[in-house]
Amino acid sequence: MSRFAEPQHPLFQAINRSLDCDRRLWPQDVRLSRAHARMLARIGVLSDDELATLLKGLDQVEAELAAGNFPFRADDEDIHMAIERRLTELVGPVGAKIHTARSRNDQVATDVAMFVRERAEAAIDLLSTLMAVLLERAEEHLDWALPSYTHLQRAQPVYLSHHLLAHFWRFDRDRRRFRHVVDLADELPLGSGAAAGVTFANDRRFLASELGFSRIAENSLDAVSSRDCVLDYLAAAAICTTHLSQLGAEVVLWSSAEFGFCESADRFASGSSLMPQKKNPDAAELLRAKAPRASGALAALLGVLHGLPLTYNKDLQEDKRHLFDAVDTLELALRVAAEQLRALRFNRKRMESAARDEFMAATDIADMLVRAGVPFREAHRRVGALVREAVEQGVTLSQLDDATLRSRLAELDPQAVRSALALEAQLESKISAGGTALARVREQVANARTRLAADA
């Protein structure tokens, strides 16, 4: 006899069952059960023989799950109950003792925290690989010029190395975010029971040590109901995949015939079912498209958690679908980004041709006026008028005659203006820390190499 007088309706079983999703947590759950059994023996709930029997049974359960021949049953509600049911089948009545002094509430919260920590560490490793590729490609193309863009309009010339390193530092911030995820998930929920704690003197610090946690959750109500670690991971993943989408979008744009700045390797492109000539940058397009999945997972879980009263509610079962999809999406995208970028071919001639657009030197000319004593806003207005005049004449700035230059830039020598219009002069004039002058880029490369080595 149990609390219920009738069996569960098949429809309830269908909506309640989570095994198809949470079976992925079996490595964490087996590890947790081993630690819990050792703790029960430590506080005298299990004898040494009972502990040995349970550990042997858990070894067999683990082997079956790893081999893919674990005998799941239709009435297994989730991976936690399936493992406990199978353990009891294998070792007999002592298997029923494994759930002493724990609830699925603290059990699941602990499994999830362990999973989050593992996948956050994996994300850190994958980000380090991607950053190493970006640094390598930056060093290979140290002095290759191309335009930078604002509003997708040419802005100022930069070195390709400088542009690639912009992505390096974004991913470095992502890496730090995932380290924060690891730290915040480093609190052990296990031992909190269903809500209020348990009536046994659980050695939670022993459990924490066994499972690699540095501290225990201080409040049982918070421990069993919090999914902050999942939110933290999803937030970091959403930002990281957004960065990946921006990288992918640039590859898509730059590989178009209109730009021609780069070309994807054949192994990261596809063709058309109709047009034989096509070479599509599908890998980069998919990097661009994956970001909303991670962002959507974060928004969905925030919706699940919104307004939930303490402590555990079945709503929390929905955390894992969003988490697992975001993990798979992020890890695949990071692997693809690194390998695609490693094989990407850049077109120096096309980039440099675009970078020689003299109108991008307009700010440099305005700065020359400022150095000659002209207030910046006045300098900005006068150089803008000069640009308009060149556009109307259909010429470049250097093709304007001396009289025109003197009429707008009376404080400057026309030949000095023309010298400042040279691509090399524009690039090397950006001497501020973090700028694109080659000396600054070399410093940045050294700093990036140090950062990468320090965190290896």
Automatic annotation (TrEMBL):
<dbReference type="Pfam" id="PF14698">
    <property type="entry name" value="ASL_C2"/>
</dbReference>
<dbReference type="Pfam" id="PF00206">
    <property type="entry name" value="Lyase_1"/>
</dbReference>
<feature type="domain" description="Fumarate lyase N-terminal">
    <location>
        <begin position="3"/>
        <end position="296"/>
    </location>
</feature>
<dbReference type="GO" id="GO:0042450">
    <property type="term" value="P:L-arginine biosynthetic process via ornithine"/>
</dbReference>
<dbReference type="InterPro" id="IPR022761">
    <property type="entry name" value="Fumarate_lyase_N"/>
</dbReference>
<dbReference type="GO" id="GO:0005829">
    <property type="term" value="C:cytosol"/>
</dbReference>
<keyword id="KW-0963">Cytoplasm</keyword>
<keyword id="KW-0456">Lyase</keyword>
<dbReference type="InterPro" id="IPR024083">
    <property type="entry name" value="Fumarase/histidase_N"/>
</dbReference>
<dbReference type="InterPro" id="IPR009049">
    <property type="entry name" value="Argininosuccinate_lyase"/>
</dbReference>
<keyword id="KW-0028">Amino-acid biosynthesis</keyword>
<feature type="domain" description="Argininosuccinate lyase C-terminal">
    <location>
        <begin position="359"/>
        <end position="426"/>
    </location>
</feature>
<comment type="similarity">
    <text>Belongs to the lyase 1 family. Argininosuccinate lyase subfamily.</text>
</comment>
<protein>
    <recommendedName>
        <fullName>Argininosuccinate lyase</fullName>
        <ecNumber>4.3.2.1</ecNumber>
    </recommendedName>
</protein>
<comment type="pathway">
    <text>Amino-acid biosynthesis; L-arginine biosynthesis; L-arginine from L-ornithine and carbamoyl phosphate: step 3/3.</text>
</comment>
<dbReference type="InterPro" id="IPR008948">
    <property type="entry name" value="L-Aspartase-like"/>
</dbReference>
<dbReference type="GO" id="GO:0004056">
    <property type="term" value="F:argininosuccinate lyase activity"/>
</dbReference>
<dbReference type="InterPro" id="IPR000362">
    <property type="entry name" value="Fumarate_lyase_fam"/>
</dbReference>
<dbReference type="InterPro" id="IPR029419">
    <property type="entry name" value="Arg_succ_lyase_C"/>
</dbReference>
<dbReference type="InterPro" id="IPR020557">
    <property type="entry name" value="Fumarate_lyase_CS"/>
</dbReference>
<keyword id="KW-0055">Arginine biosynthesis</keyword>
